[in-house]
Design goal:
The protein is built from 13 helices and 11 strands. With about 350 residues, the protein is α/β, with parallel strands linked by helices. It has 2 domains: about 250 residues, TIM Barrel; about 60 residues. An 8-stranded parallel β-barrel has the order 3-4-6-7-8-9-10-11, surrounded by 7 helices. The protein has a two-stranded antiparallel ribbon with strand order 1-2.
């Protein structure tokens, strides 16, 4: 792919008052998009990032100390960053949103898209796509309490299922949310019932962007390579893309996207030394975030995701599966990602 067509604008993406340098965003990823992953993604070219989703009750009640304080961590180089809320208790959304504002998040994102069983069973996430009145009440409460300079955004899927009733409810929520003042809406091209099975329907995103006009729409779903991200923008004309599973263990996807978007030569898959550099940086950020006793387990979780890029990916993955100490982790790193050319 030679790059982004010159006929399409390259002015980045705008979320409320924030003019972003590019349309490539790190999605909210439960268990992953903590302050460390966000900072690493930004270092590799992400223009904006969303924190991992918080249940509204957790955001209101939990103390920002000890093992929970990392959920509220916002670093100076993390801006602009969104805090994402999901829940079932309409009345808690306003206080929860204010808790995130007080913690330093620049944008409040409301999750109406999560399809996992625990969310649906708990009347959260994608469950609300079947209840437009409740969904819009949540949006209204958040928009009313959050300061006007703080953008509110929404995450959705294209509906509960493919029925006409579900479609009607989707557009009721979408248009209603924009009417209440949300700055942007991200839409995943699968239904809630699909979860992560089958293709994301990009043709729906194209139809949706035509319907939305100048209102900001971000697309999501099946974005695993830089080429995927560019193609979604080309084919659907969405204003930006939120990269989810494709960014876990793969921060390079952001600078690869930027190269194609700018019409520059494609950036190849990272070499083993380049992989080591990113992983060591990620480990450094996790140590800072979680402390000396907790970072190794978290890092091994990410190492499983980095492993597919390694030539001996199965062996590498297995080697990280049983680690318990920092010394063991470093030994495996030195074995499979050896220091070259003065790297450390």
């Amino acid at each position: 792919m030679s790059g982004f067509p010159s006929s399409l604008p390259q002015c980045g993406l705008r979320i409320g008052p924030y003019q972003l340098e590019s349309p490539f965003v790190l999605a909210a990823l439960s268990g992953y998009s903590d302050a460390a992953m966000r900072r690493l993604s930004r270092e590799y070219g992400a223009s904006y990032a969303l924190a991992e989703v918080m249940i509204e009750r957790f955001a209101v009640e939990v103390k920002q100390t000890g093992k929970t304080k990392h959920h509220f961590r916002v670093d100076d180089d993390d801006h602009p960053v969104a805090g994402q809320l999901m829940g079932s208790d309409v009345e808690r959304f306003g206080p929860a949103a204010m808790r995130l504002v007080e913690a330093g998040f620049d944008v409040i994102d409301i999750n109406f898209g999560c399809p996992v069983k625990s969310a649906i069973g708990g009347c959260r996430g994608g469950y609300h796509l079947g209840r437009p009145d409740v969904a819009l009440d949540i949006v209204r409460r958040v928009r009313d309490v959050v300061p006007s300079e703080i953008p509110v955004t929404v995450k959705m899927r294209r509906g509960i299922d493919d029925s006409s009733e579900s479609r009607d409810k989707f557009f009721t929520i979408l248009d209603g949310a924009f009417g209440l003042g949300v700055a942007a809406i991200t839409v995943h091209g699968r239904t809630v019932e699909q979860r992560y099975d089958g293709p994301s329907r990009w043709e729906f995103l194209k139809e949706l962007k035509q319907h939305a006009g100048e209102r900001v729409i971000l697309g999501s779903g099946d974005l695993f390579t830089a080429e995927d991200c560019i193609r979604m923008i080309q084919e659907t004309e969405v204003d930006g893309v939120t990269i989810a599973r494709g960014a876990i263990g793969n921060p390079w996807i952001f600078n690869q996207c930027l190269a194609l978007w700018r019409g520059e030569p494609s950036i190849p898959s990272p070499t083993v030394p380049a992989q080591r550099h990113a992983i060591m940086r990620h480990a450094e950020l996790l140590q800072e975030l979680y402390g000396p006793d907790r970072w190794v387990r978290k890092m091994c979780q990410f190492n499983f995701k980095y492993a597919p890029l390694h030539p001996e990916h199965e062996t590498v993955r297995n080697a990280f599966a049983t680690l318990r100490t920092a010394q063991q982790w470093q030994a495996v790193m030195d074995q499979f990602y050896p220091i070259e050319n003065g790297d450390s």
